[in-house]
Backbone:
């Protein structure tokens, strides 16, 4: 009898995008104003998705769900939530 | 001193693009837990939002070996895995540092369905960390009441608001005489991080409960997850404390409330921000029912202040 192949085992492997390209869930997109941003990393620490680069404060829009937590927590108001087209 | 944001490690064990709702407090908390535990750990999960958030087979949204177990068994399964890795090490089949075994369980799986197995594991003082991320309801199945749902809150099984107070679960775990118990919440990531590091370095059973305000169950706006967590602490509805070998200490800002240096904010604002209390606020006996909620909070503050004085 043929052995059961890997694909049939109920085992998953760590990968980005396990819930799909979750960026498509967004209704609003967080946009960082680099003129105002002080690179305090507060947005980075609270982002549930780990999509903010802590050094550059850039956002990976492929997976950012647009939750808006970063914009609410930013102490300088550097992040605005802009409506997706 | 609490670890500052800039000192937190880079490592990410919660992977981007997982299946959790946007703004999910459980995922937010787990990300910080991952920074404290590092990759050498084994995760056990009972049915919950955090299981749904793992994503779709064959992809997995967490970068640890994860085991999905049945609802009642987080305590016993974690004990089993803990003993297995210890024996493998003894027999030379596992090299290097022992992995940290941890259970990641919702309030339903902790306060109610998993309570017996958790209590037994604590009594045996088995060497693992039990995390309860507490969103105060059975969220994954559409928000039913749990033993962690506070009095007055609407759920699909408490349509006029829950009539009973919640359990003081962390204190119940303290009374099991385990070496480490702590409470935390997502608004205070440095505090959470430090507690997880401490738990990781303490042999025996550890219990850490993290208040996880869920916008869907509590009915507030999705961007306000952290705000709600902060309000829970400022109102005294959630107290930050830890107990090392039974000695309780309170953490900022809860310590200020406990020692009377700063009054807790009245619960009204916290309650009014959450849709789950709407029906109660509109009911004819709203004033007396809010007074009941405030009464539960005051009682817990007074009780924990007195309990902390017992250090034998
Ligand atoms: C024995 C058993 N009963 C019921 C269920 C259905 N179920 C799956 S997840 C869930 C809710 C879990 O609540 P909680 O532990 O608080 O985690 P949350 O979903 O809130 O994150 C329930 C009732 C199940 N999987 N197994
Ligand atoms: S929170 Fe605001 S100021 Fe701080 S790093 Fe993020 S965008 Fe910049
Ligand atoms: S909107 Fe949410 S997911 Fe996107 S970067 Fe901000 S906090 Fe992260
Ligand atoms: S329902 Fe709440 S706890 Fe569950 S995934 Fe959504 S935000 Fe997270
Ligand atoms: Mg729950």
Residues:
């Amino acid at each position: 009898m043929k052995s059961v192949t890997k694909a049939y085992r109920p085992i998953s492997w760590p990968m980005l995008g396990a819930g799909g390209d979750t960026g498509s869930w967004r209704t609003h997109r967080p946009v960082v104003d680099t003129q105002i941003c002080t690179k305090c990393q507060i947005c980075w620490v609270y982002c549930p998705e780990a999509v903010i680069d802590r050094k550059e404060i850039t956002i990976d829009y492929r997976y950012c769900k647009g939750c808006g937590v970063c914009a609410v927590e930013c102490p300088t108001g550097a992040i605005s939530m802009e409506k997706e087209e | 001193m609490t670890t500052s944001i800039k000192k937190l490690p880079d490592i990410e064990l919660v992977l981007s693009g997982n299946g959790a709702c946007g703004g999910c407090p459980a995922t937010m908390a787990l990300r910080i837990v991952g920074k404290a535990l590092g990759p050498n750990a084994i995760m056990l999960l009972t049915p919950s939002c955090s299981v749904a958030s793992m994503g779709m087979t064959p992809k997995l949204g967490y970068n640890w070996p994860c085991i999905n177990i049945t609802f009642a068994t987080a305590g016993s399964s974690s004990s089993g895995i803990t003993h297995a890795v210890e024996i493998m090490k003894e027999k030379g089949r596992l090299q290097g540092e022992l992995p940290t075994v941890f259970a990641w369980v919702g309030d339903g799986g902790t306060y109610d369905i998993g309570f017996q197995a958790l209590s037994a594991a604590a009594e045996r003082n088995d060497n693992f960390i039990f995390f309860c991320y507490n969103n105060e309801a059975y969220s994954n199945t559409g928000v039913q009441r749990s033993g962690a749902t506070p009095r007055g809150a609407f759920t699909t099984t408490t349509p006029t608001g829950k009539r009973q107070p919640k359990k003081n679960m962390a204190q119940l775990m303290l009374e099991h005489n385990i070496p480490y118990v702590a409470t935390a919440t997502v608004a205070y990531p440095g505090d959470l991080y430090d507690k997880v590091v401490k738990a990781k370095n303490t042999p025996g059973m550890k219990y850490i409960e993290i208040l996880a305000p869920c916008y869907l169950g509590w009915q507030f706006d999705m961007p306000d997850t952290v705000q709600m967590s902060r309000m829970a602490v400022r109102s005294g509805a959630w107290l930050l404390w830890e107990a090392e070998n039974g000695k309780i200490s309170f953490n900022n800002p809860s310590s200020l409330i406990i020692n009377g240096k700063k009054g807790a904010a009245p619960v009204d604002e916290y309650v009014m921000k959450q849709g789950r209390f709407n029906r109660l606020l509109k009911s004819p006996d709203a004033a007396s029912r809010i007074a009941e909620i405030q009464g539960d909070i005051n009682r817990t503050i007074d009780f924990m202040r007195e309990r902390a004085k017992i250090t034998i």
